[in-house]
Amino acid sequence: MDTTQTLAETLKLERLEVNLFRGTTPDEEQRQRIYGGQVIAQSLLAAYETVEDRVCHSLHCYFIRPGDPSIPIIFEVDRSRDGGSFTTRRVIAVQKGQQIFNLAASFQVEEDGYEHQSDMPDAPGWDAVEDDSVVRRRLNPNPPAEDVDWIDRVQPIEMRTVGGRFDVVEPERRDPHQQVWFRARHPIGSDAHMHQVILAYASDMSLLGTSVRPHGVSWRTPGFQSASLDHAMWFHRPTDFNEWHLYVQESPSASGGRGFNLGYIYRASDGALVASCAQEGLMRMRKPRPKA
Q: Where is the Acyl-CoA thioesterase-like N-terminal HotDog domain (predicted)?
């Protein structure tokens, strides 16, 4: 991503009609398919464009087709319901006349209520953990030409994986648990909705990889195929995503060519649980094609 452009600017949408929006993928992020967190964030942003004075408390979405990063995405918002306390929106993301993704989100007026939460687990502080980009460069001192951009790209989200990132070329087997410190690299500003949008963007990072850890494979393993299938997120408390947060991840199950993952996002400053996530992803080895 161009370091002169903030993530908020990158995710910005163009309004085409009352409930119709257009988003793009920056040139620096042109890959085989669109990063899932981008389309989650832009869909939530499109929904917010049709909601006033309410805050998203949950979203549920499905990844239907790989997105093409070289062309715009059209986001169509269905104003499902505007109730006394809750507002519901459905967003369909379209490319080439086909759905690539859909999202349902619920928004609520702010109100007080009972409170409790699980405690933030023990973890080394963010300042005691190496930046993932440093670890990535150390594990790949002489990368092939096609990997140089991936290794050197300045990511819009700072990430520090407790215990270090595993080697994607020769991955070792690890427990299906991990802790990742993360925060937005660029200032987000005072818009609380945008902090939610960028947190949703970041929530797709590293979560699917949790279910892969016990199996000694990575996206670089020949024949291995992985992709996010669905993603759900619950926002419990407002937060400033320019601060450090601990993303606690676990994968209680993998079966049927799918891995299931749970994530809990805690604010470093006070241990508040600000959001929770659940995701299922494809994880399988492609069967070799029979010789002709």
A: 30-108
Which H or E run contains 264? strand 258-267
Interhelix angle 192-203/36-48, nearest 10 degrees: 160
Q: Give the CA angle between residues 276, 201, 264 to the nearest 5°.
A: 20
| Residue 227: φ, ψ to 5° | -170, 145
Cite the DSSP H helix spans in the chain. 7-11, 36-48, 132-139, 148-152, 192-203, 209-212
CA geometry: angle 281, 13, 9, nearest 5 deg? 90
φ/ψ of residue 128, rounded to 5: -105, 5
The answer to whether the CB of 167 falls within 8 A of the CB of 212 is no
Contact (Cβ atoms closer than 8 angstroms) between residue 184 and residue 242:
yes
Which residue is listed with tokens 């619920």? Answer: 106
Burial of 198 (0-12, 13-18, 19+ CB in 10 A): buried
Which are the catalytic amino acids?
204, 228, 279
Residues 191 and 79 grouped into a single domain: no
β partners of residue 231: 61, 279
- Number of domains into which the chain is organized: 2
Residue 20 CB burial class (10 angstroms; 0-12, 13-18, ≥19)? middle
Of the CA atoms within 13 Å of residue 127, those in its CB half-sphere come to 3
Kindly report, residue by residue over 134-148, the tens digit of the pLDDT: 887 787 667 666 666
* CATH number of residue 262's parent domain: 3.10.129.10
What is this structure's pTM?
A: 0.92
Q: What is the pLDDT of residues 181-233, one digit of tens each?
A: 999 999 999 999 999 999 999 999 999 999 999 998 887 788 888 999 999 99
